[in-house]
Amino acid sequence: MPDSEQITHCMGCGTSLRGHQYCGQCGQRNVHRRLVWQAITEDLKAQLLEWDLPWLYTIKELTIRPGKSIREYIEGNRVKYVNPMKYVLYVVAFGTILIAILPDNVLMSSLIFLNSEAQNPLAKGAIANPAIFLLVASPLAVILLRVALWSSKLNRTEMYCFVLYVMGHAALIVYFILIIAAIWYTAFPIHVPSDGLTPIAFTPFFNLAALSFIFLPPVYAAYASIGVFGVRAFWSAIATFLVTVTFIFVSFVLFAFVASQ
Predict the structure, then answer these.
(1) What gap in Å lies between CA 18 and CA 10, rounded to an integer?
(2) Given CA atoms 141, 144, 150, 155 in this order, what sign does their dihedral have?
(3) Same domain for 26 and 135?
(4) Domain around 218
């Protein structure tokens, strides 16, 4: 596959571009053959305030067929999907608003183990929306993936695309679990001890919300890795799972350090 900057046929539908910047058939912009950082940032600037993009399609595909959809975006079929950076930014914004209006007990019952560590505004802000902290630490995930999947043909930017989609969609799923927990809490209020030490008789939804912060991203990342990386599917899933677990562990260690300052 050539690495030329511009291509002669649309990567979305195959129509001849004939030197045009946009495809006359499907409307996709003439993109780089290989996914590079410039392509993502250019798409972000052009689409940041646009709402006529297929959000529902992107959410559906990232839920059902994440590997296939991420691979399509990386390979150039991008008109059907929301830009990965835009996707993460909007998901984090949605989460920030959501958590701000949730009952305190819903959030704190899931993050009580972090609440006792918070000593400064930066740490408290990270508790309010852990996805922000993980987003800042996301380059670490790319480095770990590059090491674990060194034989993959994806470049650094393409791996970052994978990380952004996985992180954004995993966070979105967690937010919806929190919504369910909030509805349950409204119907069946519980008392959360203020000391953060007394055991809490969680309902199933609170257990699910608490566990999803830790276990959902690695499982989803492993599932999404199948069909994305140019290595054996089983190894890519195992390696991606271990990388995500390591990334989350290191991120929380760094968070605990920041929180203690």
Answers:
(1) 10
(2) positive
(3) no
(4) 37-260
Distance CA 117, CA 138 (A): 22
Which residue is it, tokens 């006529």?
Answer: 52
Residue type for position 47:
Q
Name the residue among 245, 260, 253, 254 with its Cα closest to residue 214. 245
- Residues 62 and 22 occupy one common structural domain: no
Specify whether 60 is located in the same domain as 5: no
Residue 196 above 60 pLDDT?
Answer: no
Whether 153 and 169 share a structural domain: yes
C-alpha angle 66/68/69, rounded to 5°? 65
Angle at 8 (CA atoms; ends 4, 13), nearest 5 degrees: 115
What one-character-per-residue DSSP string does 68-137 give? HHHHHHHHT--TTS--HHHHHHHHHHHHHHHHHHS-HHHHHHHHHHHHTT--SHHHHHHHH-HHHHHHHT
C-alpha to C-alpha distance for 207 and 211, rounded to whole angstroms: 6
Same domain, 52 and 106: yes
The number of folded domains in the chain is: 2
Predicted TM-score (pTM) of the model is: 0.73
Compute the chain's Rg from CA coordinates: 20
Same domain, 126 and 23: no
Q: Which two tokens stand for residue 3?
A: 């690495």
pLDDT tens, residue by residue, 36-89: 777 777 666 666 655 555 888 999 999 999 999 999 999 988 888 999 998 998
Instruction: Give the whole-angstrom CA distance, residue 192 versus residue 198.
Output: 9
Same domain, 54 and 27: no
